Amino acid sequence: MGQFHFTIIDDTDDATLENIKPIYDFLYEKRIFITKTVWVYPPRDKHSKGDSLQSPEYLEFIKDIKKKGYEIGLHNAGSGDYKREEILEGLEEFKRLLGEYPKIQINHSYNKDSIYGGYKRFNWPLRALVKMMYPQYAGVYQGEDPSSDYYWGDVHKRIIRFSRNHTTSLINTANFDKYMPYIDPQRSEYCNYWFSATFAPNPWIFNRIINRHAIDKLEIEKGTCIVFAHLGYFMKDGRINKGFVDAIHYLASKNNCVSMPVSPLLEERIENRKKQGREPTPKIPLLAKAILEIKHLLTRYKYRHLFKLDDYTYKNLNSKMFQ
Ligand SMILES: [Zn+2]
Fold first, then answer.
1. Distance 272 CA to ligand 1 centre (A)
2. Percent of the chain having pLDDT more than 90?
3. Ligand 1 mean position, distance from CA 75 (Å)
4. % residues pLDDT > 70 (the chain)
């Protein structure tokens, strides 16, 4: 059977040296290579907790996994409000500590400096709908607004190569988004190339979507899976989530499973297109973007309101019975 790809974009929320190191030790033992995002500074808002590059032990761990082949991306300079000067300082600090700038950045929940955050991810008419559904976030996201104190879009465009937008409940992310990495003409002023991800933010959803049966399907389709997850949620009472362990074991048992972090995976897709004489980074057509948007909203609706498994419920319920 042909090759298939598996990787994870790990959102750093709640990740501490204590709860995240065992997960990376396990992934390394199984030779599954992914992208870990980091905060340069400690969280300063009430929504989030977790370690940052300012913790010497955590920094050592990040340097160690980087050396082993893991990609380190950015999850904004930190959780909370960071103005332009702090963000630019944060990027320099990232480079000073880790030897290079991040190639990948994913927006963190309510950060004002997020680039095309919230409803700005959508085109008309869904943009208007999302804005109406979440009026409390109107005007919050300003990272790409040159008149804002939270603006850093110009630097983002210069440094960051890949940004994440839409998510799917399919294991085969590339079946959902055939264009990635793509240029979004409506959002190309401050971003370069966009990719999508499979929505598995916590162990409940991960176990539903990434299981042996689904992995077999991914293999048959010779697909590409980029999971979006908060691996900081995957350790409980000193143990890694059982379903996660089983899925990683199963992936590692297949010698046609290719695992590399997100940026090299996307670069490989660009190179393959060049070899095939295709447009290496296509512009996404409006209709294709609209389909991603509709499917994205349906996925979010399903896990928020029908199954009640997303982080809204997960973070509010400190229950062990689902683990
Ligand atoms: Zn986050």
1. 31
2. 87
3. 7
4. 98
Sign of CA pseudo-dihedral 314, 316, 317, 318: positive
CB of 288 closer than 8 Å to CB of 179: yes
Coil, helix or strand at residue 269: helix
Global pTM value: 0.95
CA of 241 to the centre of ligand 1 (A): 20
| Residue 195, φ and ψ in degrees, nearest 5 | -135, 165
Domain boundaries, the chain: 4-314
Distance 164 CA to ligand 1 centre (A): 12
Rounded distance, CA 1 to CA 205, Å?
28
What integer best gives the mean pLDDT of the chain? 94
Q: How far is the CA of 10 from the centre of ligand 1 (A)?
A: 9
pLDDT digits (tens, 9 = 90+) for 210-256: 999 999 999 999 999 999 999 999 999 999 999 999 999 999 999 99
Distance 280 CA to ligand 1 centre (A): 30
Range 133-160 average pLDDT: 94
Q: Ligand 1: distance of its center to the CA of 128 in Å?
A: 24
Query: How many helices and strands (H and E) does the chain possess?
Result: 12, 10
Cα(79) to centroid of ligand 1, in Å? 8
- Once rounded to an integer, what is the mean pLDDT over residues 182-204? 97
Ligand 1 centroid – CA 189 distance (Å): 23
Give 140 Cα–ligand 1 centroid separation in angstroms: 16
> Alpha helix locations (H) across the chain?
17-29, 56-68, 84-98, 126-133, 153-159, 173-176, 203-209, 212-220, 242-252, 262-275, 286-301, 311-314
Average pLDDT over residues 38-62: 95
- pLDDT score at 43: 95
CATH class name, domain 4-314: alpha beta
